[in-house]
Amino acid sequence: SAVYDDGWPHRTAPSSGPQPTKPPAEPTDIKVTATTATSATLTWGSDPTATSFQVRVTYQGNLVKEQDFSASPATVTGLTPDHTYTFHIAASNSKGTSAETDGPSVHLPK
């Protein structure tokens, strides 16, 4: 056993949150909250057991960028001005990965 800040021995470390028993649920309530000519900032709601998020960006159905984030909000950079992109987000934890969202889409300014 180990001794923690409270001075008492514990059999295991204090939990830092819900421990996953299955992959997280798909992210919800995804919004594009800001754009520039070359970036988009996204927010979403997530399962409390999710530890990372994979954002895939498509243009006319083709994958153009993949980026991993640890939390919302997240800014995807390196995009092309005056293009319409669709964002797909999946959540992961130690038990697996959720289904991927389809959207939202946003048209970046020139």
Please tell me about this protein's structure.
The chain has strands at residues 2-3, 9-10, 28-35, 40-45, 52-59, 62-69, 74-76, 84-93, 96-97, 105-107. The chain contains no helices and ten strands. The chain has 110 residues and is mainly β. β3 (28-35) and β4 form a beta hairpin. The model has no long low-confidence stretch (mean pLDDT 89). The strands form three sheets. Strands 5, 6, 8, 9 and 10 form a five-stranded antiparallel beta sheet that branches. The radius of gyration is 18 Å and the shape is elongated.
Low-confidence stretches: none
Fraction of residues in helices? under 10%
The helix tally amounts to 0
The helix/strand series, from N terminus to C terminus, equals EEEEEEEEEE
Summing up helix and strand content along with how strands pair, one would put the structural category as mainly beta
Shape: elongated
Instruction: Note the beta-strand portion.
Output: over 45%
Largest sheet: 5 strands, antiparallel
In short:
The protein has 110 residues and is an all-beta fold.
SSE topology:
Layout lengths: L1 E2 L5 E2 L17 E8 L4 E6 L6 E8 L2 E8 L4 E3 L7 E10 L2 E2 L7 E3 L3
Antiparallel strand pairs: 1-2, 3-4, 4-7, 5-6, 5-8, 8-9, 8-10
Jot down its keywords.
single chain, 110 residues, mainly beta, three-stranded antiparallel sheet
